[in-house]
Specification:
This protein is an all-alpha fold. The chain has one domain. It is 76% helix and 0% strand. It is built from nine helices and no strands. It is globular, with a radius of gyration of 20 Å. The termini are far apart. Pfam families: TRAM_LAG1_CLN8 (PF03798). Keywords: Membrane, Transmembrane, Transmembrane helix.
Amino acid sequence: MAAAVAAMMEGQEISSGTVVSWVASGVVLWSTAFVLVRGLFPKRSYDFCNRAVSTMHAVAAVCLACLSVADWSRPVRPLAAASTPSQMKALAVTLSYMVYDAACCHLHGDVRLDNTVHHLVSIVGIGAGLAYRRCGTEMVASLMITEISSPLLHLREMLKEFGVRDTDLNLLVDVLFAVTFSAARMGFGPYLTYVTVTADNPLLIKAMATGLQLVSAYWFLRILRMVRYKLGKKKPLPPPGKAN
Protein backbone atom coordinates (compact mmCIF):
# COMPACT_ATOMS: atom_id res chain seq x y z
CA MET A 1 0.00 0.00 0.00
CA ALA A 2 2.72 2.47 0.97
CA ALA A 3 4.69 1.45 -2.11
CA ALA A 4 1.71 2.53 -4.21
CA VAL A 5 1.63 5.87 -2.41
CA ALA A 6 5.36 6.36 -2.89
CA ALA A 7 5.15 5.35 -6.54
CA MET A 8 2.59 8.05 -7.19
CA MET A 9 5.02 10.58 -5.73
CA GLU A 10 7.99 9.71 -7.93
CA GLY A 11 9.01 12.09 -10.66
CA GLN A 12 6.78 14.96 -9.54
CA GLU A 13 7.93 18.51 -8.89
CA ILE A 14 7.56 19.17 -5.19
CA SER A 15 5.20 22.11 -5.06
CA SER A 16 2.62 22.83 -2.38
CA GLY A 17 -0.09 21.41 -4.65
CA THR A 18 1.94 18.25 -5.17
CA VAL A 19 2.35 17.70 -1.42
CA VAL A 20 -1.39 18.19 -0.89
CA SER A 21 -2.15 15.68 -3.65
CA TRP A 22 0.24 13.17 -2.05
CA VAL A 23 -1.54 13.46 1.28
CA ALA A 24 -5.03 13.32 -0.25
CA SER A 25 -4.09 10.26 -2.32
CA GLY A 26 -2.65 8.62 0.75
CA VAL A 27 -5.84 9.15 2.75
CA VAL A 28 -7.83 7.51 -0.04
CA LEU A 29 -5.41 4.59 -0.26
CA TRP A 30 -5.31 3.93 3.51
CA SER A 31 -9.11 4.10 3.60
CA THR A 32 -9.30 1.68 0.69
CA ALA A 33 -6.93 -0.67 2.51
CA PHE A 34 -9.25 -0.61 5.53
CA VAL A 35 -12.27 -1.45 3.38
CA LEU A 36 -10.36 -4.32 1.75
CA VAL A 37 -9.29 -5.72 5.13
CA ARG A 38 -12.89 -5.51 6.37
CA GLY A 39 -13.96 -7.45 3.29
CA LEU A 40 -11.25 -10.10 3.74
CA PHE A 41 -11.98 -10.56 7.44
CA PRO A 42 -15.73 -9.94 7.84
CA LYS A 43 -15.86 -11.69 11.20
CA ARG A 44 -13.15 -9.53 12.72
CA SER A 45 -13.86 -6.35 14.60
CA TYR A 46 -13.51 -2.76 13.41
CA ASP A 47 -10.54 -2.33 15.75
CA PHE A 48 -8.83 -5.45 14.39
CA CYS A 49 -9.09 -4.21 10.80
CA ASN A 50 -7.86 -0.75 11.71
CA ARG A 51 -4.90 -2.26 13.55
CA ALA A 52 -4.07 -4.33 10.47
CA VAL A 53 -3.88 -1.13 8.41
CA SER A 54 -1.90 0.55 11.19
CA THR A 55 0.62 -2.30 11.07
CA MET A 56 0.97 -1.85 7.30
CA HIS A 57 1.68 1.82 7.87
CA ALA A 58 4.19 1.21 10.66
CA VAL A 59 6.24 -1.17 8.49
CA ALA A 60 6.02 1.20 5.52
CA ALA A 61 6.93 4.27 7.59
CA VAL A 62 10.05 2.66 9.04
CA CYS A 63 11.13 1.38 5.60
CA LEU A 64 10.58 4.74 3.89
CA ALA A 65 12.33 6.56 6.74
CA CYS A 66 15.33 4.23 6.48
CA LEU A 67 15.50 4.68 2.70
CA SER A 68 15.55 8.47 3.12
CA VAL A 69 18.66 8.47 5.33
CA ALA A 70 21.56 9.65 3.21
CA ASP A 71 24.42 8.89 5.63
CA TRP A 72 23.95 6.19 8.29
CA SER A 73 27.17 7.26 10.03
CA ARG A 74 25.35 10.52 10.87
CA PRO A 75 21.63 9.64 10.67
CA VAL A 76 20.38 12.81 12.40
CA ARG A 77 22.51 15.26 10.44
CA PRO A 78 22.18 17.84 8.99
CA LEU A 79 19.81 19.55 11.45
CA ALA A 80 17.33 22.29 10.54
CA ALA A 81 18.15 21.66 6.89
CA ALA A 82 15.95 21.67 3.81
CA SER A 83 13.99 18.44 3.44
CA THR A 84 14.95 16.10 0.62
CA PRO A 85 12.30 14.71 -1.75
CA SER A 86 12.57 11.24 -0.18
CA GLN A 87 12.07 12.71 3.30
CA MET A 88 9.02 14.66 2.17
CA LYS A 89 7.55 11.53 0.58
CA ALA A 90 8.01 9.55 3.80
CA LEU A 91 6.40 12.35 5.81
CA ALA A 92 3.48 12.69 3.37
CA VAL A 93 2.72 8.96 3.65
CA THR A 94 2.60 9.19 7.45
CA LEU A 95 0.60 12.43 7.45
CA SER A 96 -2.02 10.82 5.22
CA TYR A 97 -2.16 7.83 7.57
CA MET A 98 -2.56 10.07 10.62
CA VAL A 99 -5.50 11.85 9.00
CA TYR A 100 -7.06 8.49 8.12
CA ASP A 101 -6.47 7.07 11.60
CA ALA A 102 -7.86 10.13 13.38
CA ALA A 103 -11.04 9.90 11.28
CA CYS A 104 -11.23 6.13 11.81
CA CYS A 105 -10.97 6.47 15.59
CA HIS A 106 -13.57 9.26 15.62
CA LEU A 107 -16.05 7.24 13.55
CA HIS A 108 -15.56 4.27 15.88
CA GLY A 109 -16.10 6.42 18.96
CA ASP A 110 -12.55 5.84 20.22
CA VAL A 111 -11.95 9.45 21.28
CA ARG A 112 -9.44 9.32 24.15
CA LEU A 113 -7.49 12.37 25.28
CA ASP A 114 -4.04 10.83 24.88
CA ASN A 115 -4.86 9.48 21.42
CA THR A 116 -6.39 12.80 20.35
CA VAL A 117 -3.31 14.72 21.51
CA HIS A 118 -1.09 12.21 19.69
CA HIS A 119 -3.01 12.67 16.43
CA LEU A 120 -3.08 16.46 16.81
CA VAL A 121 0.64 16.75 17.55
CA SER A 122 1.55 14.40 14.70
CA ILE A 123 -0.70 16.03 12.10
CA VAL A 124 0.29 19.60 13.01
CA GLY A 125 3.97 18.72 13.37
CA ILE A 126 4.31 16.78 10.12
CA GLY A 127 2.13 19.30 8.29
CA ALA A 128 4.34 22.14 9.51
CA GLY A 129 7.47 20.27 8.45
CA LEU A 130 6.06 19.77 4.96
CA ALA A 131 4.92 23.39 4.77
CA TYR A 132 8.31 24.76 5.91
CA ARG A 133 10.15 22.17 3.77
CA ARG A 134 12.66 21.93 6.60
CA CYS A 135 13.56 19.62 9.49
CA GLY A 136 13.30 16.54 7.29
CA THR A 137 16.19 14.82 9.06
CA GLU A 138 14.68 15.27 12.52
CA MET A 139 11.17 14.33 11.44
CA VAL A 140 12.21 11.19 9.57
CA ALA A 141 14.21 10.11 12.63
CA SER A 142 11.07 10.71 14.68
CA LEU A 143 9.12 8.44 12.31
CA MET A 144 11.55 5.60 12.94
CA ILE A 145 11.51 6.12 16.71
CA THR A 146 7.73 6.32 17.04
CA GLU A 147 6.73 3.61 14.58
CA ILE A 148 9.29 0.89 15.23
CA SER A 149 7.32 -0.46 18.21
CA SER A 150 3.89 -0.11 16.59
CA PRO A 151 3.70 -3.60 14.97
CA LEU A 152 4.18 -5.19 18.39
CA LEU A 153 1.61 -2.84 19.91
CA HIS A 154 -1.00 -3.94 17.39
CA LEU A 155 0.03 -7.62 17.52
CA ARG A 156 -0.60 -7.79 21.27
CA GLU A 157 -4.14 -6.49 20.77
CA MET A 158 -4.86 -8.61 17.70
CA LEU A 159 -3.81 -11.78 19.52
CA LYS A 160 -6.59 -11.17 22.04
CA GLU A 161 -9.14 -11.27 19.23
CA PHE A 162 -7.83 -14.69 18.23
CA GLY A 163 -8.51 -15.82 21.77
CA VAL A 164 -4.85 -15.93 22.76
CA ARG A 165 -4.78 -14.54 26.30
CA ASP A 166 -2.62 -15.00 29.39
CA THR A 167 -0.11 -17.24 27.63
CA ASP A 168 3.67 -17.16 27.35
CA LEU A 169 3.22 -15.80 23.81
CA ASN A 170 1.21 -12.85 25.13
CA LEU A 171 3.83 -12.16 27.76
CA LEU A 172 6.65 -12.37 25.19
CA VAL A 173 4.93 -9.89 22.87
CA ASP A 174 4.16 -7.55 25.79
CA VAL A 175 7.76 -7.58 26.99
CA LEU A 176 9.17 -7.12 23.46
CA PHE A 177 6.80 -4.21 22.92
CA ALA A 178 7.75 -2.61 26.24
CA VAL A 179 11.48 -2.98 25.57
CA THR A 180 11.25 -1.67 21.99
CA PHE A 181 9.02 1.26 22.97
CA SER A 182 11.20 2.18 25.94
CA ALA A 183 14.47 1.97 24.03
CA ALA A 184 13.15 3.99 21.08
CA ARG A 185 10.97 6.62 22.72
CA MET A 186 12.67 7.02 26.09
CA GLY A 187 16.21 6.18 24.97
CA PHE A 188 16.62 7.90 21.60
CA GLY A 189 13.51 10.09 21.89
CA PRO A 190 14.80 12.61 24.47
CA TYR A 191 18.04 13.04 22.49
CA LEU A 192 16.13 13.68 19.27
CA THR A 193 13.84 16.12 21.08
CA TYR A 194 16.89 17.94 22.49
CA VAL A 195 18.65 18.35 19.14
CA THR A 196 15.38 19.42 17.49
CA VAL A 197 14.65 22.06 20.13
CA THR A 198 18.22 23.42 20.24
CA ALA A 199 18.62 23.57 16.46
CA ASP A 200 17.48 26.54 14.38
CA ASN A 201 14.03 25.09 13.73
CA PRO A 202 10.71 26.95 13.61
CA LEU A 203 9.03 27.39 17.00
CA LEU A 204 6.05 25.25 15.94
CA ILE A 205 8.35 22.33 15.13
CA LYS A 206 10.06 22.64 18.51
CA ALA A 207 6.71 22.73 20.31
CA MET A 208 5.41 19.66 18.46
CA ALA A 209 8.63 17.72 19.18
CA THR A 210 8.28 18.52 22.87
CA GLY A 211 4.59 17.58 22.84
CA LEU A 212 5.29 14.23 21.19
CA GLN A 213 7.95 13.43 23.78
CA LEU A 214 5.54 14.26 26.61
CA VAL A 215 2.92 11.92 25.12
CA SER A 216 5.59 9.21 24.83
CA ALA A 217 6.55 9.70 28.49
CA TYR A 218 2.91 9.35 29.54
CA TRP A 219 2.54 6.12 27.54
CA PHE A 220 5.87 4.87 28.95
CA LEU A 221 4.50 5.15 32.50
CA ARG A 222 1.36 3.24 31.48
CA ILE A 223 3.49 0.53 29.86
CA LEU A 224 5.56 0.15 33.03
CA ARG A 225 2.39 -0.45 35.02
CA MET A 226 1.21 -2.97 32.42
CA VAL A 227 4.49 -4.92 32.58
CA ARG A 228 4.46 -4.96 36.39
CA TYR A 229 0.91 -6.32 36.32
CA LYS A 230 1.75 -8.97 33.71
CA LEU A 231 4.87 -10.14 35.52
CA GLY A 232 2.96 -10.17 38.81
CA LYS A 233 0.38 -12.53 37.32
CA LYS A 234 3.17 -14.91 36.31
CA LYS A 235 4.58 -15.23 39.85
CA PRO A 236 4.03 -18.76 41.21
CA LEU A 237 1.64 -19.16 44.11
CA PRO A 238 3.23 -19.99 47.47
CA PRO A 239 3.14 -23.71 48.38
CA PRO A 240 0.44 -24.90 50.81
CA GLY A 241 1.20 -24.00 54.40
CA LYS A 242 3.61 -21.22 53.40
CA ALA A 243 1.03 -18.48 52.85
CA ASN A 244 1.43 -17.22 56.41
